[in-house]
# Entry
Amino acid sequence: MSDIARGAERSAPRGHGDQGRRLAGLVFNVRVLRVAGQVAAIALLVGLAVYLGDNYQANTRSRTGYTGWQFLDQPTGFDIDTANFRAAQPVRDALWVGVRNTAISAAAGIVVATVLGVLVGVLRLSTSWLARKTATLYVEVVRNVPVLLIILFTSAGLATLPRITEARDLGGLAVISNREISMLSPVAGDGLGTYVVVLVAALVAARLLWVRRTRVSDVTGEPHHRVLWAGGLVAVVAVGAYLVLDGPVTVSRPQLSGSGVAGGISMSIPYVALTGALGIYHGSHIAEIVRGSIQAVPHGQTEAATAIGLSSFARLRYVILPQAFRIAVPPTINQFLSLTKNTSLGIAVAYSDVSALGFRLIGSRAPALQTVLILMAVYLMFSLTTSVALNLFNRRLQLVER
Amino acid sequence: MTRPSYLGKLVAVATASVLFGAAACSDDDDDGAGSEEAAESGDAGGGGGGGDVLAEVTERGTLNCGVNNAVPGFGFETESGELAGFDIDYCQAVAAAVLGDPEAVEYVVLTPEQRFTSLASGEIDVLIRNTTWTSTRDGQEGAAFVTTTFYDGQAMMVPSDAGVTSIDDLAGATVCLTAGTTTEQNLADRMAGIDHTPQTYEENSQVQDAFLAGQCDAWTSDASQLAGIRSNWPDDQGGPEAMTILDEIFSKEPLGPAVRDGDSEWYDVVDWVVLATIEAEELGITSENLDQMLESEDPAVRRFLGLPVDVEGEEAVVDHGFGVEPDFTQAVIGAVGNYGEIYDRNVGPDTPLQLDREGTSNALWTDGGLHYAPPFR
# Structure
């Protein structure tokens, strides 16, 4: 405010107390115009929002009388391809199932994309001609094809797996069919709680032992062998407690039973198709980020590391990768965010992610506007959570400069 | 009338088309003034106001008919690229009655999610798109359903060699279907207590691919749609014989035309066009014997065809007062024939769908079915 007043005063010729001139000076003052422009733009936006909101209210009231959020408590009316969801459960439960499915697919996709991306990114700089060219082929092909095509391609590929009646048992580790892939999974036994407590205690003890061994080594100069000491302690306790507690963790093996597969952890083919395809697609982008970041570390760093006599592994481990990592994190965050949003393409392969369920709910009487608003909020929440977590991580990584 | 303005409507249509990722045509593609009024009356429709679709259609010279283009027998594109089917014939019947020309139809192909928005916004004059008449659609969606043209019901299709004879045998099965319809809800009702996995796809073609790959145990949809899909089952997969439609029908799906709420004149016209096809069959009038029937002495036939009859000693034509000529029935029967002809031509035993009519709800009331027309008098 004082800025404007001062500006107005400055532009008005001193000594002339003429009101008209002062007003004209105010009108043509750049700062005043700028503020007025902002106010006008905000007023226009608010006006538009009010107009559209009012219009929406009036139209829906005259046609359906359905503007509130009470639909969230009404029964869903249809089943979802996830066990134990019943049609009588309210719409909010169905949306919650969708949010969970989206989160599961995004999290698994991120793991696949990261592992694949780092591996391929490093291979692209390999000295082996074959490894380098194979990695380049993968990156160039996958990166330049729309992700939807990759999802459909993966889905079509998985459809050629054996039918459920001829499901293939891979030595009790996994049972594969074109409806689901079931794998060996751990199952909680009776003493699991106690076992976890004992393990945590062992880890704490191992940490103390580690610190102690380091100190002993510093003082006496004898080799510390801290990995041996601490690791040995954890291993002994883990095995001992496991035997004492009579198997707190057991494994469930997938087995063919009748028309399906029982036991193990089961992944539906739509889930595998979506998650796998997103992992493959975003993996190719992450590979490029990894390669670019490694190459972005100045060559002088390599030379310097070589000059002080580091082996090629030590050079990579202690000099190049820590610096490349800092460069790679921000663009990788973007890949994670876009992978999360791309899970909405699950609708193409009949995966019940939150968008697919949202659209099915709209089809069965949930109001479109409210449902789409909820979907937008869900993706916003996913993106903001991911980016907040990773930005905090990124801040810790960056060099602290004074 | 001021608030739900034309702009608001356009925004709503635009939003809807963005949301559902489909291309809704703009409101004013033929003549601006006419459709603008239509949009206005669309708003009024929900509130129960008036409307004048009949005058608009007459003035425009074409009928905007909302249809499907992917259901064999009902509304589908033939190899020559033209639309054909049971529903398409009714579009032509309405055009013949109102405009005298069964070809004066502008077809608007719609998805299930688009159809009611399109009807309410005035983009189409009548919706004839295998649409089930339900209470909420009549009440909440601002649609008014006329007499049912096809009594359908949801059924289940399974591979013939699966050894499944009843829906109760499907415990543990994966049931595939398409989204966005009442089908999902009917399935949940029927399969309550039977362990099953519903797998929901966007389109019938996707379900078929999944089925052929062995990812589904059963396919549920309206019986007539399943018959159409079965008739097109690929020959290298065993042809139609490879699939069996189970006998049990587990929902009521009365399919028929719908118009906007609030225009009773237009409602009457569309309703009596449908009734005319039914009445013509009962009277034995077909597109082939129409000329001979014009010579008939039977007063019921003469009244129906809009011919002069003896009313209290004087020769006069019965005017129904719908705003169309009393002999609109001649145009309808001349264009598409009676109900039996429409049925046999599109979905009957001699078509790929092979839907028997005898003994079903789609027979005339005189044969134990549900099709019954009030008297034309």
